[in-house]
Design goal:
By secondary structure, this protein is α/β, with parallel strands linked by helices. The chain has helices spanning about 50-70, 85, 90-100, 110-125, 165-170, 180-190, 210-225, 235-245, 260, 265-280, 290-300, 310-325, 330-345, 350-365, 375-385, 395-405, 415-420, 420-435, 465-470, 470-485, and strands at about 5-10, 15-25, 25-35, 75-80, 105-110, 130-140, 145-150, 150-160, 205-210, 230, 285, 300-305, 305, 450, 460, 490-495. The chain contains 20 helices and 16 strands. The protein is elongated and about 90 Å long.
Length: about 500
């Protein structure tokens, strides 16, 4: 019997990658690997918008990947994008078409989520060890630093410094000289300086470099007789002198140097040299794993389309956020229970949509520490800007909308609600109703409550005889809620 097939798509700032393989006896075996140099990170204009050419290059690559992924089930594929699309103001324009072309949703992940996945991928490809490890991943527009032990990441940070960005900024004319390198290294250290305390040499025993820039430098050094498996200061100094001797990208001829890497080697080398100096790295060992392997590890946790590992991580993240912001756990759990009951009475399928409602219920009051009147707005802002492990930026924004819209007028949700999928509106309605039933911050009496759905756009809520007299405030709030939904595609009817 053939093993389960899985695929990971990594939309990096320099390259797009597709990893395909099968799981045999719990071990992933690669069957196919596709990589294209798209260099999307160089396609951001001065307003941080992707240029039409950059978007088209990305779509063309995704079309080729999509053809190869035809026939894969949704739970067999995970696709993520990193720093370039984190920065791009018009990322939704790219993603809307990109999702359709690829045939699978592309999630833009936060810097810390990227760091988590990188460490997960690296750790799974390394021999077991109790040593504290420093993992460095220098991409096109960001650098991730992770301190971990065994399979567990301990400290994760993402910095906006990368080989494409630094090459464009400090080696824009393709010229190599000491002054340009000095300025680039000083600038890199200025960005990375805050890492000094957490990632100081005494905090780790061994340093690993993952993929991207580290891999490109290592390939060059190996081709020129340097040892396999690590980069040291001697190798960096040799490459530095070679670039200075060449003076420009056009004149650069070194064994092992791919043509597509020449234009960004200056920026990449300056960042590596800066990290060696800043963190006192003597030897940077080359790691086999990286982001896409971390994605595969996440996908391997999916069985029958259910994201067991992913949901567990998301659940822990939500719990940590709730604890951090001092949420009233008893009240949030009460609302979650009522929301779950309403969802069931409505006859909706249990699954990811309900889980999102329950997570939003846990977090709906997280803004209370900032303001009692506008806590929903502050909570939404926090979720839109939080680095939450296990969640993509779009997933966090969805939670943000639910928290923002759980009380008050629906117009504050903005133009997103009318155009949203019906699922989001149903989630929002159930959450708002649960909050109303629990307004007195005690267990509500909803025995005998019934819900009918005469059509997909209408929810009819009916209570038992005398309930509205026993709970007049609840009945009043529910009748007010009817008016809140009048300007939306959904209809609420209560009696």
């Amino acid at each position: 019997m053939m093993g389960k097939r899985l695929a990971a798509v990594d939309l990096g700032s320099n390259s797009f990658r597709l990893e395909i393989g099968r799981v045999e006896h719990g071990v992933f075996q690669r069957t196919e690997y596709l990589k294209e140099t798209v260099r999307q990170g160089g396609g951001l204009d001065e307003n941080r918008n992707l240029t039409p050419a950059a978007m088209q290059a990305g779509w063309d690559c995704l079309a080729r990947f999509g053809e190869r992924l035809a026939g894969f089930a949704p739970h067999e594929v995970r696709a993520v994008a990193t720093q370039t699309l984190r920065e791009a103001r018009n990322r939704e324009d790219f993603l809307q078409r990109g999702n359709a072309i690829l045939g699978f949703p592309i999630n833009v992940i936060s810097g810390r989520e990227e760091a988590r996945l990188i460490y997960q991928g690296v750790a799974h490809m390394l021999p077991p060890s109790h040593d504290k490890r420093l993992v460095v991943d220098i991409g096109g527009r960001s650098t991730e630093l992770i301190l971990g032990q065994g399979m567990k990441p301990l400290v994760m940070e993402s910095f906006q410094v990368g080989s494409i960005a630094w090459s464009v900024r400090y080696f824009s004319h393709g010229q190599f000289n000491k002054k340009a390198f000095s300025i680039a290294e000083i600038a890199a250290q200025a960005v990375l300086e805050e890492a000094l305390e957490a990632y100081a040499p005494e905090q780790w025993s061994i340093a690993y470099g993952s993929a991207g820039t580290v891999g490109a430098i290592s390939d060059v050094l190996i081709a020129n007789g340097f040892p396999v498996g690590f980069i040291d200061r001697a190798g960096l100094d040799w490459l530095y002198e070679k670039l200075l001797a060449a003076q420009s990208v056009d004149k650069l001829k070194i064994a092992g140097m791919r043509e597509d890497r020449k234009a960004i080697i200056g920026g990449g080398l300056s960042i590596v040299r800066a990290l060696f100096d800043l963190l006192k790295i003597d030897t940077l060992h080359q790691a086999s794993g990286g982001l896409r392997h971390g994605l595969i590890c996440d996908v391997m946790g999916m069985v029958g389309g259910v994201q067991h590992v992913g949901d567990d991580l998301r659940g822990k993240t939500v719990t940590r956020l709730a604890e951090k912001f001092g949420v009233d756990t008893a009240h949030s759990e009460r609302i979650a229970r009522v929301a779950s009951t309403l969802w069931k009475l409505w006859g909706r399928e249990r699954g990811s949509a309900l889980r999102e409602v329950l997570w939003a219920a846990q977090l709906h009051e997280m803004g209370m520490r900032i303001s009692h009147s506008d806590y929903h707005k502050h909570g939404a802002y926090i979720l839109d800007h939080a680095d939450a492990m296990g969640f993509s930026l779009s997933e966090m924004h969805r939670l943000s909308l639910l928290v923002l819209g759980h009380k008050g007028k629906l117009r504050k949700v903005g133009a997103e609600l009318p155009d949203a999928d019906p699922q989001l509106m149903a989630q929002l309605m159930v959450l708002r109703l649960a909050v109303i039933f629990c307004h007195a911050r005690r267990e509500p009496d909803i025995e005998g409550l019934s819900i009918q759905r005469p059509n997909p756009q209408t929810l009819q809520l009916r209570w038992r005889t005398g309930w509205d007299h026993a709970f007049p405030q609840s009945a009043h709030l529910l009748r007010e809620e009817v008016a809140a939904w009048k300007k939306t595609p959904l209809v609420l009817d209560v009696d």
